[in-house]
Design brief:
121 residues; mainly alpha; 85% helix
């Protein structure tokens, strides 16, 4: 009978370890995506949509990975804000119409505010 609490503890620890592995894997994949973009495009193309798609997707992956790992709140918030700023540059470079750009910025600001409020709880 005393083996059952140990099994429950081991199962919970295993789940936590699985989430940690998933989170750190996403962080590493995000770094690899950003590095791939850095090597794929020369410096004079870093403000074009092709390169920005690499960097934005890499930073979003890093932010999700840090959130899954339950890293320090300032790291998660910093990753979210950097991803947001890069997404602003991406939308600006996409040369959308004024209405579409404003809608994108407003939705993005609301989403970022909500995510940061979740992290700070």
């Amino acid at each position: 009978m005393s083996n059952q609490p140990e099994k429950i503890t081991q199962q919970k620890g295993g789940r936590t370890m699985g989430w940690q592995i998933l989170g750190w894997s996403l962080v590493i994949i995000g770094v690899v995506i950003i590095l791939w973009g850095l090597f794929e495009f020369p410096m004079n193309q870093w403000l074009e949509l092709d390169f920005l798609s690499f960097v934005v997707s890499g930073m979003v992956s890093i932010a999700i990975g840090l959130a899954i790992c339950k890293a320090a709140a300032f790291l998660i918030i910093a990753a979210i804000l950097i991803s947001t700023l890069l997404l602003v540059v991406y939308i600006w470079q996409a040369a959308l119409g004024m209405g579409m750009s404003m809608i994108s910025y407003i939705v993005m600001a609301a989403l970022v505010t909500w995510l940061i409020s979740l992290v700070l709880k």
